[in-house]
Amino acid sequence: MAIRDTSATDTVIAKKPNPRRRLILIGAAVAVLVVLALLAPGIKRMLSTDASVSASRISIATVERGPFVRDIAAEGRVVAAVSPTLYATSAGAVVLKVNAGDTVKQGQVLAVIDSPELTNKLAQEQSNADALEVDYQRAQIEARKQRLELQKAHDNAVIDAKTAQRDLERNQKAFIKGAVAQMEVAHAQDTLEKSQIALKHATQDLGLDSDSLNFDVKAKQLAWQRQQLFVKDLQRQVDDLNVRSPVNGQVGQLFIAPRATVAKDAQLLTVIDLSALEVEVKVPESFARDLAVGMGADISGNGGNWKGAVSAISPEVVDGQVSARVRFVNSKPEHLRQNQRLSVRIVLDQRSDVLTVARGSFVDESGGNYAYVVRDGIATKTPIRVGASSIDKVEILRGLKAGDRIVISGTDAFNGAQRVAISD
Length: 424
Prior knowledge:
- This protein has five helices and 22 strands.
- The chain is an alpha+beta fold.
- The protein has a six-stranded mixed sheet with strand order 1-22-18-17-21-2. It has a six-stranded antiparallel barrel with strand order 3-12-15-14-13-16.
- It is elongated.
- The model has no long low-confidence stretch (mean pLDDT 81).
């Protein structure tokens, strides 16, 4: 027996059209088409670029034309232009006569070094100098005595020669008259020749011995003078045991304790000349090559402003910086102290009509050879050439014009792409 189903009882219901639903579907389709139309340029732009970077990761600046000032602004500290450090000229015990902070005058004794060895050596060498002086004076006396003896021998030889000449003339006259023999005339002739030879030798001895005596006296004199110089140097060393201030100023740092025993050339103390103050600043290495002695500077702080000039530039680079000193052009400001902080601005260059853009990391990242110019949300890699740089601006020599917008930082995220989309 077959079981019947319910098909006989089913009724087919006709589907009624729904106008509202159709309108909803048509509206949705139109909305999708509108959205696609609006997004089409962006999609096309995205497809035409090599990468996409969020705008929050980069900084954009506008190229402008106007004044350009290259300057260096830095914090400096007041230092003394003259701040000598005094050293021990000899080993010994040091007695300090001043304290740190005391005002001192030039030539004032600041410390005394007790050095018995040096003072005893001075006394010994002074005694040697006195002995050499006596030898020098004795040599002068002996030389005068010997010159007198030589002069006496020379004078006697002159007289003997004159006597022999007269005897020869008298014998010759007598021989003519037949009063003396020929032998007497010959004897007188020999005597004259002997006296002339003796006079010649006496004259030579007077000249040569006199020169020898002069040399002996000169040698004694030089030995005495040399000893005097030695004593003078020792006297200077003994005088230097009294350590004196080389300038008018103030005692700075004391390197030793009172009555300390120190070695030769040990540091004792410093003296600060407060009448000649300068400002020491640290300049970045990239600007140091443009610095020159004599450049103008503006110094401010402590409620005042002063004109200055660069007075010295260190030849050494330390931690990427170069030390420079700026002196006050006019009179020294009042109430300044050592190590006081002041602001310094050094003007390197100033021009009125220059194409510039805000300084950013793009200069270092690209080497100043290219920049990313932003137009319609696309950053395009563009060759450029940069010139001088200041603290906040970079000079543009080629590749950009006024009004261009470029990416000045964050270009490391572009990875060197030619075109980059900037997304919101």
